[in-house]
Specification:
Length: about 140
């Protein structure tokens, strides 16, 4: 298994825990406050990792990189705000699959904006994700 595959599986595992733990955590408070608390924890955890690795090198961050990271952060923030509100209002077993439509949307956006090739295998995978999401939420 390649290292990117190990990290991707770790991401999937922790994202699954995020749905369950988030549903429990958002049960008694405002979803935006829950997102804020989660963000503080992520900030502190990431700062600790960067400190441990001695990687505080802002000189390598170009203006272009900064713009895209800020935009990505804004998109992440909106995603999390929507996700926690959806968890508060719906079942985790329904919210999580709809959230994972981001996989299909990411492939589509990568084809459009990054000019990545859509292979038959990837197209079939996207179609199956869409079909699976429909089956799980209807």
């Amino acid at each position: 298994m390649n290292s990117w595959q190990s990290y991707a599986l770790g991401s999937a595992f922790f994202a699954a825990l995020t749905a369950i733990l988030g549903k429990l955590g958002v049960a008694e408070i405002n979803s935006n406050l829950a997102t804020f608390i989660r963000t503080i924890v992520i900030f502190l955890m990431t700062a600790a990792v960067i400190s441990y690795q001695h990687k505080w090198d802002f000189a390598q961050v170009s203006q272009r990189t900064l713009v895209f990271l800020v935009l990505s952060g804004l998109a992440t923030g909106m995603s999390w705000l929507c996700y926690y509100r959806a968890l508060q209002l719906g079942n985790a077993s329904q919210v999580a699959p709809v959230d994972k439509l981001s996989v299909a949307l990411s492939v589509l956006l990568a084809v459009i904006f990054l000019h990545e090739k859509l292979t038959l295998k990837a197209g079939l995978g996207v179609a199956l994700i869409l079909a699976g999401t429909l089956v799980m939420v209807l």
